[in-house]
Amino acid sequence: QAPHLLTNFLFPSETKKIMAAASHKKITSFHPPQRVLMGPGPSNINPRVLAAMSLPVIGYLDPAFVEMMDELKSLLRYAFQTDNQLTYPISGPGSVGMESCFVNMVAPGDKVVVCRNGVFGGRMIENVERCKATPVIVEGTWGEPVDPNALEDTLKKNPDARVVAFVHAETSTGCVSDAKALAEVAHRYDCLTIVDAVTSLAGCPLYVKEWELDAVYSASQKCLSCTPGLSPVTYSDRVIDYVTGRKDKVQSWFMDLNLILNYWGNTVRTYHHTAPINGLFALHEALLLLKEEGIENTWARHQRHYQALKAGFEAMGLKFLVKEENRLPQISAIMVPEGINEAEVRSKLLSEFNLEIGAGLGPLAGKVWRFGLMGYTAQSANVMLCLSALGSVLS
Ligand code: PLP
């Protein structure tokens, strides 16, 4: 346990005891326990992806690596169902993908409409504020999709808004919003869209080109079943035109698209930052697996295993937070039955069955469990394990 700075200040003797205990522990190589990851992410990883990650490192400007980067971009275009030229993985988790969209597309003083129906819409608002812009919030209900009519009302009242941001798949509730309808409304009012597809990419239909989404970010560790720490993004030409035409400097050096284009763009390849090379090997393999399975088949697999899980939950008398028509197959929020200690159930599932599930977030903390069936985790054996383990713990 690392002594916290404040603890150190207030209780120096306590800190010394902790440090002494830590210094006596013999540290050996770390071997994580084998878990079945049925929480909100990360999901389990296909052994082929882990094997790719362990290949020897090469330079980030090595011609072989550069060739691999081009394949990676084309595989990502397939995953996002787009032909956007600027489609690449950001070095950093989904939160960096989110932040990159905001710092590039939102300048100080702008007005941005953010739709919030869960935790991650709230994070978008934080991003807008940190860009020194004004968020206008379309407040939704947790567990229900964002209402396109409510977005339209807000845009009517705020004709000076430049950007509309929303979450396609709210991981905190397991609810999907109609990204196509929301983008249509946003474009009618001449706004660019920022879309969070962290949980939706590869887990349920997402058509970036057909739905005309402008900036879409995701993460590697959910339905792509890759190692955590990468954030695939795709930007329409409208976004690139805006960012390259910006008169002020993008607030972040690391995330400034104008600079990153020199590494991930098409023409030149110059040093920007040291790419997470082995992580990118892993992503390449994860995307190849997606291509081999076929994206529609992958979506169908998520749906099939969700149906089996749902049948089991219903047989146990458990209730979903979200109405059936708005549910995401890859993440289910289940109401904790009256009188059950929800944290104890999670802890027993982990210690007795090596099964990780997620807790509720924000106002849903203590009220729901979140069961993920994402990517490689979406398999019959895991559905069976989950239902039998949960049945045993609840009995
Ligand atoms: N957006 C959504 C919808 C998420 O579910 C998450 C993570 O769970 C994030 C953003 C942030 O992603 P990361 O944890 O990879 O930074």
Walk across the major sheet and give the strand order: 2-10-9-8-5-3-4
Q: What's the average pLDDT?
A: 95
Overall body shape? globular
SS elements, strand count = 13
The helix fraction, in percent, is 40-55%
Rg over CA atoms: 22 Å
Low-confidence runs: none
Supply the number of helical segments.
Answer: 14
Outline the fold blueprint.
Elements: H1 5-10, H2 12-24, E1 36-38, H3 47-53, H4 63-80, E2 86-91, H5 94-105, E3 111-116, H6 119-130, E4 134-139, H7 148-157, E5 163-167, E6 169-170, E7 175-176, H8 179-188, E8 192-196, E9 215-217, E10 230-235, H9 237-244, H10 257-264, H11 277-293, H12 295-315, E11 331-335, H13 342-353, E12 355-359, E13 368-372, H14 380-394
Parallel strand pairs: 1-12, 3-4, 3-5, 5-8, 8-9
Antiparallel strand pairs: 2-10, 6-7, 9-10, 11-13, 12-13
The chain binds pyridoxal-5'-phosphate (PLP).
The site of pyridoxal-5'-phosphate has 13 residues, from helix 5.
Task: Describe the model.
The two termini are 35 Å apart. β12 and β13 form a beta hairpin. The model has no long low-confidence stretch (mean pLDDT 95). The protein is an alpha/beta fold. The chain is globular. It is built from 14 helices and 13 strands. Bound molecules: pyridoxal-5'-phosphate. The site of pyridoxal-5'-phosphate has 13 residues, from α5. Pyridoxal-5'-phosphate (PLP) binds next to α5. It comes from Oxalobacter paraformigenes. Keywords: Aminotransferase, Pyridoxal phosphate, Transferase. This is Aminotransferase class V domain-containing protein.
